[in-house]
Design a protein that fits this description.
two-stranded antiparallel sheet, three-stranded parallel sheet, single chain, alpha/beta
Length: 117
């Protein structure tokens, strides 16, 4: 019984060092937090977009809350000024995304005329 206790104690001690590392990639200039300092990012969705996109946006905000303890802030409309924002939408159903694509600020050639890409 004494040996069993020692073995269990050693396994408990080892489990502290077995915690998974979430991200070991070095931080770069294009990274941004979804939640930092107790504040979650703002998540924007267009009022003209499909209902399923709005639902996915809400679920994404809830997922951020489950992971970080702070739910994302869903806002319907185009984003204003902000440092950490997420825009979720569909081409030709989100004027902000369409403007970015039209101004060549984002490349949408890989997803144009596609579904769920």
């Amino acid at each position: 019984m004494k040996h069993l206790f020692v073995i269990l104690f050693l396994f408990c001690g080892l489990s502290v060092f077995a915690q998974p590392k979430i991200n070991d990639k070095p931080k770069s200039s294009v990274d941004f937090p979804l939640c930092a300092g107790g504040e979650s990012c703002d998540i924007f969705v267009s009022p003209e977009d499909f209902e399923v996109v709005k639902k996915a946006t809400s679920l994404f905000a809830e997922d951020i809350g489950r992971v970080t303890g702070t739910k994302g802030h869903v806002q319907v409309g185009n984003p204003g000024e902000g440092q950490n924002i997420v825009v979720i939408g569909t081409l030709n159903h989100n004027s902000f995304i369409d403007k970015l694509a039209g101004d060549n600020q984002i490349d949408v050639t890989g997803i144009q005329n596609g579904w769920e890409q």
